[in-house]
Amino acid sequence: MLYRVEGLVIRSTDYGEGNKIVTLLTPDFGKQGIVVRGAKKLKSRYGALAQLFTYGDYSYYKGGTLGTLNSGEIIRSYQELRQGLDGPAYAAYAAELTDRAMDDEAAAYLFHQLLAFQTALAEGKDPQIVVCAYEMKVIAAAGYEPNLDECAGCGRSNVPFRFSPPAGGALCHSCAYRDPGALELGDGAWRLLRIFAGMDMRRLGNISVKENTKKQLRLALRRWMDTHMGLNLKSRGFLDQLEKYGEMLSPDIAAPPSRIKPQPDSDAADDSGEISG
Ligand SMILES: [Zn+2]
């Protein structure tokens, strides 16, 4: 049977002599595995369709588990994401995370979220923020959303919380004994976690976030995923190294001159920015 779908390449592996198998994330059929014959040959018309991050229109024959590409058109190649270090690291991580964490019921939702993630990255939005927002979408789509508004121990709301992955999210100070390793997050990190939980990636605007807040967000989300989802992603090691390296350089040294902004002294002038736009 011949299928025609829009899809995003979330995995691409070599297969036999000169061929590739791609995993497409599609809105209607979940994940689809397709053999692209001759994809590795230099003159292949379909080589670009088999590249990671490509968004395209794919026609393929399928009888069993794997399809075979018949023809295709690139809608957007996301070439920007294959350049430098940040793009490949973050986009490959998001692709692998999606591949490993999603079930087919969430396919349509995650398709649009991942497309918006790749677009935000390609537009040069802060990858550390974009990836945290996307991680929250994957976590929610997989059914592991943390409770951010009520204490997991006693149910109280509107009190200061710590963030406890093993306890299920927010933990008030009276219940903090349940998890001595619970994270102390600043107001900025709590605010962004709540925003990310309720937000569609397509509405993510430009946002400027303090380094310390980014670090807290990253720690909270990664520790949450490690506790509840245990994915052990290959792309994560490289991303962790890249982020650690970025931290070693102070922001003033790391940022090119045009990006240096005065750092606020107090938390009063915390993370500002526009989420929807
Ligand atoms: Zn409590």
TrEMBL record:
**DNA replication/recombination mediator RecO N-terminal domain location, by residue?**
1-78
Please name the Pfam families in this protein's record.
Answer: RecO_C, RecO_N
Query: Signal peptide position in this chain?
Result: none
Compositional bias (Acidic residues): 267-277
This protein's UniProt keywords: DNA damage, DNA recombination, DNA repair
Ranges for region Disordered: 251-277
Gene3D superfamilies tied to this protein = Nucleic acid-binding proteins, Recombination protein O, C-terminal domain
HAMAP family per UniProt: RecO (MF_00201)
Protein family membership? Belongs to the RecO family.
Role this protein plays: Involved in DNA repair and RecF pathway recombination.
* Protein name per Swiss-Prot or TrEMBL: DNA repair protein RecO
What is the taxonomic lineage of the source species? Bacteria, Bacillati, Bacillota, Bacilli, Bacillales
